[in-house]
Amino acid sequence: MSMTSEELNYLIWRYLQESGNAVSALALQDETKVLEFDNKYKHLIPIGTLVNLVQKGILYTESELLVGSDGSIRKEDAERYAKDFNLVQALQVDEQKFPEIHAKGRFALENEDQNRDRQEQVSEQQDKELSNDGFVKTLKEFLRLDEVVSCKWNPVNQRILACGGRDSVVTVLTMDASNQNINSKIELRHPFAPSSSAGKMTNEITCLSWSPKGDEIVTGVENGELRLWNTEGKLQNIFNFHRSPIVAIEWNENATRFITTDVENITILWNAITGTALQHFELRDQLSMIESLGVDVEWIEDDKFVIPGPQGSLMVYQMDENKPLGKLLGHRGAISVLEFNSRNRMLLSASDDHTLRIWRGGSCNSSNSFYGHSQSILAASWIDEDKVISASMDGSVRVWSHNDNALLAVSMADGVPIFAARLSADKTKYAVGFMDGQVTVYDIRLLLSLLEQSKLSRTPITIPTFGIFQNIRDFNCVYDISWSHNSDKISVAYSKGGGSIISL
Questions:
Q1: Pair type for strands 137-138 and 465-470
Q2: Residue 249: beta bridge partners?
Q3: Closest by alpha carbon to 346, among 358, 337, 336?
Q4: C-alpha distances in angstroms, 331 versus 310, 316, 371?
Q5: What fold characterizes domain 146-247?
Q6: 400 contacts 448 by C-beta, under 8 angstroms
Q7: CATH 1.20.960.30 occupies which residues in the chain?
C-alpha cells in the first residue's frame, strides 16, 4: 500500500474545496498538478475521502493497541475502549512509537532549533497537564432535562437554572444542597398566542436574561412579549411593544434598565422598575427591511450602549438622547456579538462578514481587525485584557491577541459547524456545541500557560481539549450552552429530545 505526494495533494485540495476554503485551494492548485489529477480521477473519488481515510487511520491506530510487539493479542482494556477514540488520542499513541522527524539543511526554517526547543518545552508541559493515560476526558451527563431550546444559569446562585421551551413556558430548576438532584420546579408561563411574524400558532421562548444580581429574569417569546419575574416565579411586569421574536436582552450593571431587540431590527430601552419604554429605535434602511442588522446589544457605561445599525455599522447611544453619539464603521454584515471589556475599556464585535474587530473609546475606527474564519462568527469573548476567543460556523475556534494583532491558537473540527459556544464564568474553559451534537470543552487555563512558554514562536498552537461529550442521538444539533456560576457544570439545549446538564 502506498500513496504518492501528488495523490495526497489532490485529497487535501478536494478537502479545502469541500469545506469552503476556496482561497487556500486556489493557492495549492497554483503550486501543484492537482487539476491534471482531477481531470483523470475525480469521478472515482467520493466527497469526504480525506476525512474518511483519516478516520480509518484512527481506527487502525486503536486496533494496534490490541497487538503486542511480539504479535501476541493483548487483553482488551474495557474502560479505554468505552471512550470515543479521536484524532488527538491516535496522534499521542503514534508519537510514543515513532520519533519526531526534524527538517535539516535547506529544508530547515530560520531559527528552527530555538523554536523546536521552545515547542518541546510546551509539549512537555502539555503532557504533564493531561490525564495520566494521555486521553481526552470523556464528560458525563449529570442530569437529563425535558425538551428545551434555551438555557441560562443564574449568575449568582449556582443551584438555579432557567430552561426555555417550545410551549411558551420557562422552567426554573433549583438543585438541592448537594447539587445532585432537582429540589423544585417553577413554571414561568407566557400566553400561548399566534406569532404575528411567523403566522403560526406558537410562542416559543426565544430569549432569557438574568439580572446581574440574579434576583430577576426577563423572558422573551416569538410574538414579541417580554415578561419580568422574580426568582420565586412571581410576575413583576409585562412589556408589549415588540411584535416579533426577541433575539437579545441586555441588562445594565445596576439592573435598573435593559435593552431588547427583535428580528425586525427594532430596539427598545426599558425601565426595569416601572416597565416603561424609554427609547425606541428602528435603524432600518431599504436593504435591512428584510435582513437582520444583528442579534446582540451591549452596554459600555451605565448610561451608554451600542446597538447594530444598517450595513454592519455600530451605533453608540446615550440614554435620553435620540441622536447617536457616534457611528462605528468597518463590518460588512449583520452583527453577531458585542462584548465590552470594562478593564481595558474596549469593545469587541463579531459579524457575519467573518471578521472580528476591536474598538477603542473615542475612536470611530477599529484598532484591530481579525481575519481567518471562513463563515459567520457566532460567539466571541474576552479572555483577558489582551486575548479574545471566537467560534465560527466553519467549525473552528480561534484565539487572538489584541496587543500583537495576531492569531495565537486554533482548533479545527473537520468542517462540522459550530452552533453555540460559551466561555466559563472563571474564564478557564470554553465550551463549544457542534451540529452533530458533540460538546467539546477547551482548556483555556492550560492554553494560557502554553502561550506564555511559546512567546518566541510565530506559529499558532493547538488549543488543548479538556473533555468531550457526545449526544447519542443522531442529527441532534446543539442549540444553546450555558455555564453554572462556579464553572463546574454546563447546560445544553438540543434540537431534538431533552437537554442535558454535563458535569466537569
A1: parallel
A2: 260
A3: 358
A4: 10, 15, 12
A5: Thrombin, subunit H (2.40.10)
A6: no
A7: 5-100
Residue 164 is placed in which grid cell?
Answer: 426555555
| 3 state SS of 378 | strand
Cell numbers for 70: 511480539
Task: Using DSSP, state whether 449 is helix, strand or coil.
Answer: helix
Closest CA to 19 of 373, 481, 500, 447: 373
Angle at CA 330, nearest 5°, toward 362 and 23? 145
Q: Beta-carbon neighbour count of residue 450 at 10 Å?
A: 23
Cα 33–chain centre separation: 37
CA atoms within 13 A on the CB side of 39: 3
CATH code at 5-100: 1.20.960.30
Amino acid at the residue 112:
E
**How many residues are present in the chain?**
504
Kindly list the distances between the CA atom of residue 447 and the CA atoms of 86, 240, 343, 441, in Å, as whole numbers in the listed order. 20, 45, 22, 12
What is the distance between the alpha carbons of residues 61 and 485, in angstroms, rounded to a whole number?
A: 40
237-245: list long-range contacts, CB under 8 Å, 24+ apart: 237/272, 237/275, 238/275, 239/268, 239/270, 239/275, 239/277, 241/268, 241/277, 241/280, 242/266, 242/268, 243/196, 243/197, 244/195, 244/196, 244/197, 245/195, 245/197, 245/198, 245/204, 245/206, 245/220, 245/221
* CA angle at 449 for the pair 447 and 453, rounded to the nearest 5°: 110
Candidates 473, 475, 470; CA nearest to 502 is: 470
3-state helix, strand, coil in the chain (%, to 5): 20, 40, 40
Q: Report the Cα 368 to chain-centroid distance in Å.
A: 21
Q: Under a CB-based contact definition with an 8 Å cutoff, are residues 470 and 435 in contact?
A: no
pLDDT-above-90 percentage for the chain: 55
pLDDT tens, residue by residue, 121-162: 555 555 555 444 446 788 989 888 888 999 999 999 999 999
- Mean pLDDT over the full length of the chain: 84
Whole-model pTM: value is: 0.74
d(CA 119, CA 355): 29
Residue type, 356: L
**In this predicted model, what pLDDT tens digit does every residue of 357-394 receive, in sequence order?**
999 987 788 999 999 999 999 999 999 999 999 999 99
Which cell numbers in the block locate residue 302?
451605565
CB 358 within 8 A of CB 368: yes
Q: Where in the chain is the domain with CATH 2.40.10.480?
A: 146-247
- Report the C-alpha gap between 130 and 214 in whole angstroms: 35
